[in-house]
Amino acid sequence: MKTFLPKIDPAKRRWVVVDLDGANLGRTAVIVANKLTGKDKPIFTRHIDTGDHVVAINAAGVKVKGANKPKQQRYYSYSGYPGGLRTVTLAEKMEKKPEQVFSLAVRRMLPKNRLGRKMFKKLYVYAGPEHPHGAQKPEPIDSIKRA
Q1: pLDDT tens string 93-128
Q2: 72: buried, middle or exposed (CB in 10 Å: 19+, 13-18, 0-12)?
Q3: Cα-to-chain-centroid distance, residue 82
Q4: Which CATH number is 14-63+96-131's, of 3.40.50.150, 3.90.1180.10, 1.10.443.10, 3.40.50.2300?
Q5: What residue ranges do the domains of the chain occupy?
Q6: Please, are residues 54 and 123 in contact by the beta-carbon 8 Å criterion?
Q7: Which of 5, 33, 45, 60 is the most buried (most CB within 10 A)?
């Protein structure tokens, strides 16, 4: 018996759009990560990229549960130099770069290898409702629960 290996044509990948306005950050990131990896398809294969392209709009309207989480959750970046550790809270990052908050949440749910990096390139996040991917005719996802 031979193992079935799906043949993925890049032109056949679907495009989906996710409206993040009022959506929960973690729950929505799980759904988007599953779309990027292809886990929602019957042809899912762990070592092959079978996922779809995902366009996330209204990233500035994403919500987090917990009253103190925007003040307590921190994002760290280190320059490599002594004294180069920078910390930013979730509230500060949501004011300046809300699309980066959602991108990081999804990226950390993907595999930590070159396949995960390839999957992450199919995610497009925008702070507002406008996006330049209208020609691909993305289909909206309705399974997002609002917070």
Answers
A1: 999 999 999 999 999 999 999 999 999 999 999 999
A2: exposed
A3: 32
A4: 3.90.1180.10
A5: 14-63+96-131
A6: yes
A7: 33
